[in-house]
Amino acid sequence: MESESSASTVRDSTVYLTRKFPEPVSRILEPLFEITLNHSDSPVGRDELLSHIERADGLLCTLNDQIDREALDIAQKLKIISTYSVGYDHIDVENATARGIYVTNTPDVLTDATADLTFALMLALSRRIVEGHNLVFNREWDMPWFPSFMLGNDLSKKTLGIVGFGRIGRAVAKRARGFGMKIRYHNSVKVSKAVEVEHDATYSPLEMLLMESDFVSIHLPLTDKTRKLISYEMIRLMKQSAYLINTSRGMIVDESGLADALRREEIAGAALDVFITEPLAETSPLLEVNNILLTPHLGSATVGTRYRMGEMAASDIRNVLLGIEPVSLVNSGVRRRPI
């Protein structure tokens, strides 16, 4: 049974939540810790974020919160940074590790939701679903059916090139098999033969994958090596009839180069769920082309997925502040310090 002194020590720990999060977060954390939170769905200003980090033992943040050296320099009490995302490039992980701060994320739970959205975008783009909806909704459908009306492209028997063959890339491959697609993949490390056989996938160098695929789907983490990996020069290697889909990180695709390629009809179309700057700036060149489908970062946007992300993120904060190893540790080399 917990003693009064240990209960007091736990209650003295403060956790800062940078947003309103789903119900599991408060249910897991509020009985144990002092909670301060941003009650808005909008990000707090930099000064306010830093003032809370200075006093926090635990931090639950999002991709929009920059937890950099400046933030860590004033985080005298911070023991854990839990990000409500798979990506963690908004956190200075190396610096946090050197300070003995645990960094955790929410992998696995959003794999299926993101893979589903990837296929939704592929279908909507290739079968011109949004165009068709707008035609009807805007009362512009003024001719009956005729043989060449609103023709799109099949997925069946087409080649899908998956760039990044981790959890989400493999989940996309699983769905592609159901559509009868041929699967090519590129990865920094070639996967085992057993994984290739399981997903009926064949490895290709990146340039060859781009040249041979009818659909190219990006599923990479953002690193120095992947930043703007899909440049204008790379896009030009694709078939003129091919489509590009990105549901990973916006900085991986050169947006200006993609807009140029679309404007010149060097590829058939693109669908993006992530962008270099979010929300997308009104001056973005992506808004000046027609053969593109844009969604506002919906990869994990299902009720069940966001609920499970909250459970995972909050549980890891609870564990670390109670002196227990977290489940989804990013920086496995973190220097242990008394908690």
From TrEMBL:
InterPro entries the record matches: D-isomer_2-hydroxyacid_DH, D-isomer_2_OHA_DH_cat_dom, D-isomer_DH_CS, D-isomer_DH_CS1, D-isomer_DH_NAD-bd, NAD(P)-bd_dom_sf
Superkingdom as given in the UniProt entry: Archaea
Keywords annotated in UniProt: NAD, Oxidoreductase
UniProt domain D-isomer specific 2-hydroxyacid dehydrogenase catalytic: residue ranges: 27-331
Pfam family, one: 2-Hacid_dh_C
Annotated Gene3D superfamilies: NAD(P)-binding Rossmann-like Domain (3.40.50.720)
Domain D-isomer specific 2-hydroxyacid dehydrogenase NAD-binding: 119-299
Family as reported in the entry's similarity comment: Belongs to the D-isomer specific 2-hydroxyacid dehydrogenase family.
Name recorded for this polypeptide: Glyoxylate reductase
Species assigned in the record: uncultured archaeon W5-61a
